[in-house]
Amino acid sequence: MDNTLAPTAANIEPGKAIGQPLDRVDGRLKVTGGAKYSADMPVADVAYAALIMSTIASGTITGIDAREAEAQPGVIKVITPANALRLPTQPPSPGGKAARPQERILQMLQDPKVLYQNQPIGVVVADTFERATYAASLVKFQYDEKKPRTDMDHQKENAYKPEKANQDPTDSKRGDLSAGMSQAAAKVTEYYVTPVENHNPMEPHATLSVWEGDHLTVYDATQGIFGVRKVLSETFGLPADNVRVVSHFLGGGFGCKGSAWSHVVISALAAKQVGRPVKLVLERRQMFGMVGYRPRTEQHLQLGAAHDGAMTATGHNVHTQTSSFDEFVEPSATATRILYASPNAETSHRVIRLDAGTPTFMRAPGEASGTFALESAMDELAYALPMDPIALRLKNYAEKDPDSGKPWSSKSLRACYQTASEKFGWAKRTPTPGSMKTEGGKLIGYGMATATYPTHRSAASASAKLLPDGTAYVQAGTQDLGTGTYTVMTQTAADALGLPPERVRFELGDTRMPQTPVSGGSQTAASTGSAVQAAGRAAKAQAIALAVADTASPLYGLNPDAVDVTAGQMFSKADVTKGETYTALIARHNLPNIEAETQSKPGTEKDEYAMHSFGAVFAEVQVDPDFGEVRIQRIVGAYGVGNILNAKTARSQLLGGVVFGIGMALLEETVPDLRTGRVMNADLAEYHVPVNADVPEIDITFVPETDPFVNPLGVKGIGEIGITGVVAAIANAVYHATGRRVRELPITLDKVTGLA
Ligand code: MOS
């Protein structure tokens, strides 16, 4: 079949696949172009859809003229709010909020309201992509336009207190912040601003919808197939079993593919309305508004410390934006609650509704923007004291979670500071800004910051089958964003089953497979990995149970605990020469396979322990003193993230996170025209992401860390921590180089030279 994976045989000690730098099992398919992404799936008789997007940010559609578009060759249907299939769904209302965090309030051509710029307001279906796209450009809309609210700065009086900051409490308080500030010998009171940023995965959002009667199959570029199934089945009023969602490969996600957005429903609606499979792939510029973004934040930091550096006060108050009709809250202050042992700490999140699309999770939502502010302010506090920035952090090292008082399940941050600072050569730094220069006169800056991300886990299921040919077939309906899920699950299953990884075939990405959570919140290894391990162990236990009860087996009569398996050979631990293979056992019993399906879910461990990853990031920059150009020379990071399932793919995750941090620090910014709400840089020519020339040597170390509490695999999740801390480390290095403190991202030339 298509998309079949072939793990490469590796020279791996039996039972020790976990941790090995195994090549990606999907690597060959990908580099040969054989991997079929959602829009590549071969479906007969497919028609092509092109969306029509709103050109105003607020108002009502009063007229639609589709005649010219309908007359074009190849056009099958022009679908607008005037003629779209009616869905059993209510239109969104102002001040609304989706019922669950992974679900969004959608725009599905059901009503004439325009709620944001670049909202889908129509879709053209044609026999080719080009014909659909051209015809879409010919549909004329008239609007009754309202002046949009586009500017957070002028809406602060309308800020409200949301029920939650993402999944966490909106506010927190321990001790007395103002008392702590008045005790302080050194203080920092500043605002930090992060702009709107858009996810730009290489693969755009894409949905291919196929109806057969009242059964719907969608091939969707999604981080959560079961979430998409739920949205589609509820929207179309179908039982969940009537909807199948498939997602074999993703070309990146970063959070924007974590929810089902409007185009997913529109694709299925169009397919139903025209009676043909419909493929809908978003253009890059259509991804600026309707599929989420990292919202703007304005963060007020108040830090105070005694002469010896002991912090007396930590205040972090966040303003951020959401849409007029739905709520997403960027939880920028949550990391501040747990990072330093300050006795007086208050945090809050307030939200302002704007006429824009709904923001969403974007790699380390909250921690990426929040650690920029907190870790920049910590650097400012270090200068105000003055004190070495690492010494300041060690002075305030939190030996337990300062907010909840719970012990950490594990924490290796001290080792991270030490390892990274030694590898970086922090001791060579002279603290005075502008005191280090290259021979050519460039200003050298060294900066550091703390990285952190919480550890998440959800219930997940998996199945494992031992087959007569000595291989195994393992399934979990999870997703691979490009992170290496296929590979690490293959390794995990191999060790659990007692097979080498090249004899394990792992499949994912289909709602017909056992249910798993969204691949978000860096939880896939912890959640799905634990389930895969449990399923593998259960299948192995069944085989052993069958053998010890079988008079024809050399293992007959042994206690199951006295038997183990390596490379498919079951053996007595007391006498390793005694045993037989899975293959022999299955053949003798004439079984099609030995199969186990298990669910694995978190217990009460989070009631007892605080669970977070930590790391330390160091950056060296060179700054041109005349032009303000910042070039990053190197980044050194050390991370305590629990057990590492694959040394190669894990390092790649951290590299990717650091590169994302470089983009956030220096390049990324979505620029709205505040008069119209229109994004002025909705393409990769104008929205800058780092290219190879922007990315220096990146040195990643994993500090050995054993965590017996987080989950059975002892993994902490590595998809997101890599971006955290990087931005502040760079901003702090720019300050060290230039004496200029940039508190509004991105750090562009004009801000560094003071011309901004
Ligand atoms: Mo991640 S932002 O939780 O996909």
Overall description:
With 756 residues, the chain is of the alpha+beta class. It has a seven-stranded mixed β-sheet. A hairpin with a 4-residue loop joins strand 28 and strand 29 (678-679). The site of dioxothiomolybdenum(VI) ion has 11 residues, from loops. Residues 223, 253-255, 258, 361-363, 365, 520-521 line the site of dioxothiomolybdenum(VI) ion.
List keywords for this structure.
five-stranded mixed sheet, seven-stranded mixed sheet, alpha+beta, 756 residues
Task: Give the helix tally.
Answer: 17
Would you tell me the structural class of the helices and strands?
A: alpha+beta
Please report which band the strand proportion falls in: under 5%, 5-15%, 15-25%, 25-35%, 35-45% or over 45%: 15-25%
Q: Give the radius of gyration.
A: 27 Å
* Main beta sheet strand tally, sense and closure: 7 strands, mixed
